[in-house]
Amino acid sequence: MSRTVPTPGTQPSGGGLRTASWDEIRDLFALDRDSIHLNTGTVGAMPYEVLEVNDRVTREWTGGLMNVYPPAMYTEHRANIGRAFGVDEDEMVICHNATEGVARVIQGLDLKSGDEVVTTSHECYSVLSNFNLVRNRHGLTIRMVTPPSGPDVRAEEIVRLFEEQITPRTKVLAFAAITLFTGTMMPVRALCELAHRHGLITVIDGALIPGMLDCDLRAYGADFVSCSGSKFQCGPLGTGLLYVRNKVHPEHNPLPLPTFWPLISTWYPMIGAPPPRTTTSVESYNMGDYLQSAGSANIAKGAALARACELWDEIGRDRIEARVRELGEYARDRLVEHFGWDALYSPSSDPRLRSPLIAFNPFPAPEDAWNIKKFATFVDRLEQEHRIWIRWTEFDVPHSPHQHYAARLCTHLFNSHGEIDRAVTTMAALARELS
Ligand SMILES: Cc1ncc(COP(=O)(O)O)c(C=O)c1O
């Protein structure tokens, strides 16, 4: 069925974005009409308007004599973005990406020799290499959970595995809200409550959350959540959001605020120390400012990310989450139809663990699960011959002597059921050819 092609980037008329059709919303994005983008977990597609803001603000600030430092605090943007995620401006930082955010958190924790961290082998390299650095530097112990994979994993099993690694020396629980390799939606609140029971600091890699989930970051109950701005939030590459708990709301997290050293700061006092951290719901100082103030900044990218967030608010984050999840479930059903239930690495029968990132083995021979060449060829040929963009991932599987490889697709608001049908049928034919 053909539809009228509007001018790229024009906003739908009538009731505005809240009631716009998904076809109209797709037209907001700088996406090639002939390609199928199922790899938002790596990088999203920017709306034309976001590109325009980036371009306009870059020009406005080029070669001028204006003071570049005040806008680098992003005060208004942080307040607006924070509101969309249930937090205040003093708890929100616009940073360069999820990697930078999590590195500043891990390096800023007050950890000493003998302390232990519990995390998983399914964390992004950005998390694992930073923890390894502090292990080498300060003599910590990192205790690693390898999350189970496969369609029948249950949330309780994951929480139990974390709990088994906690000892009296444990100080930190760190995990991805949604894992990069198998797209497991971690039982975030249950893990944070586990941390609360043991008095632990919680660090969440939330790279994949913003723009996908309509979430309240404070209600997760974590101390830190580091997010990407360029994935599901569809902001420019090189943008991220960092939530830092800066006051105590006992209903969400009853623990005192952890000692935290805001690394890379031109706001931290040059003499003396900041005031003691608050024990109440009123902040004693603006930790967000401490982290935000770090010299000159890419003002254009910050403004473009803020515009992407506004567009999401206009469309409705609840509506977007429902759409993304519905497309994800549609894709999961199509994958099961073509490849079978056991081909899934992503938890699927427990709805609490499902996300719209789905990892699967398209090849019938079990030993192909560790054949990197087949996976690389599969992904490359999908892109080059069919303009379908997914990725492969590699990860530890409990009791397996080898890492496993998987194909991973993810759905976003600009995808359609038709695209998913075409992508999965094409993948099935290609997998048959390569088997
Ligand atoms: C779960 C997860 N964490 C962290 C990252 C790194 O994100 P960024 O590129 O924003 O630093 C990624 C990137 O794919 C990711 O999927």
TrEMBL record:
Keywords: Aminotransferase, Pyridoxal phosphate, Transferase. Gene3D superfamilies: Aspartate Aminotransferase, domain 1, Type I PLP-dependent aspartate aminotransferase-like (Major domain). Residues 73-342 form the Aminotransferase class V domain. GO terms for molecular function: transaminase activity. It comes from the Bacteria. Its cofactor is pyridoxal 5'-phosphate. InterPro entries: Aminotrans_V_dom, PyrdxlP-dep_Trfase, PyrdxlP-dep_Trfase_major, PyrdxlP-dep_Trfase_small. This is Aminotransferase V. The lineage of its organism: Bacteria, Bacillati, Actinomycetota, Actinomycetes, Streptosporangiales.
